[in-house]
Amino acid sequence: LRQSLTQFVPAAVLSFQWYTPEASLQLKEHFHAQVRTACQQSTGTAGLKISKVVVVGDLHVGKTSLINRFCKDNFDRDYKATIGVDFEIERFEIIGMPYNLQIWDTAGQEKFKCIASAYYRGAEAIITVFDLADIQTLDHTKQWLEDALRENEPDSSFIFLVGTKKDLVSGAVCERTELDAIRFAKEMQAEYWSVSAKTGENVKEFFSRVAALAFEQSMIKELESTPGHRAQIGAGNLISMWKDNARVSLSCC
Ligand SMILES: Nc1nc2c(ncn2[C@@H]2O[C@H](COP(=O)(O)OP(=O)(O)OP(=O)(O)O)[C@@H](O)[C@H]2O)c(=O)[nH]1
Ligand SMILES: [Mg+2]
């Protein structure tokens, strides 16, 4: 296993951004008021939050490339199959709070499936990936999701369906495939995105969305488990906090 602590993502996450309203499970634009207030009122540096994300899908669909584009901002044309699993940690700042995503990259090859599936547990987000230029890989996403869900508590993970290699398909083909993909996403209760690891299109935006949703959910869970915190709720101010560059943490929660 390789772990890399990469550079701070410059684009701090201030709000939610979806790919298309038709394919989004939630359309809210800002963090829950309780979360904003909790972030604003926290002080200190302890208690960094980390969420686990697992990426699954057929071999060769571009899982590793997607992660490498995001975490290392590079792209390799040559295919090197992932052996078992691998992971990266990416750091975010979300409404002023430091936040990490631990992104697990799994192998699509059948022979590694039992190794990879041992890492599905405790995923706050499950990303099921298919290749926009190979429609068969979309058909297999339901099975990948089912396998990942089996290892997790019901309703404990955000689910994403991601079409990769957008640069390889023409606009018309992409649109047609996306109609199918959005239908699949609805059935899977997933949010749909399309990306290109080669050009970088939508890659940062997608992972920022994953981070924002996972961050808010983990904050809400934490607030719910500490009822005393509710007494402190007041008016939050998301933007001014960011402008002041206030560094806060979750230590109070
Ligand atoms: N043109 C183009 N090629 C891509 C893109 N993403 C991945 N590829 C290529 O597709 C091939 C497979 O990519 P990987 O990222 O290794 O696929 P994977 O899903 O990790 O495969 P396994 O590890 O075997 O499960 C490589 O040759 C990549 O260069 C993309 O967005 N555009
Ligand atoms: Mg791989």
UniProtKB/TrEMBL annotation:
InterPro entries: P-loop_NTPase, Rab, Small_GTP-bd, Small_GTPase. Its cofactor is Mg(2+). GO terms for cellular component: Golgi membrane. It catalyses: GTP + H2O = GDP + phosphate + H(+). This is Ras-related protein Rab-36. It is a lipid-anchor. Belongs to the small GTPase superfamily. Rab family. SUPFAM superfamilies: P-loop containing nucleoside triphosphate hydrolases (SSF52540). One of its GO terms (molecular function) is metal ion binding. It comes from the Eukaryota. Its EC number is 3.6.5.2. Its main location: Golgi.
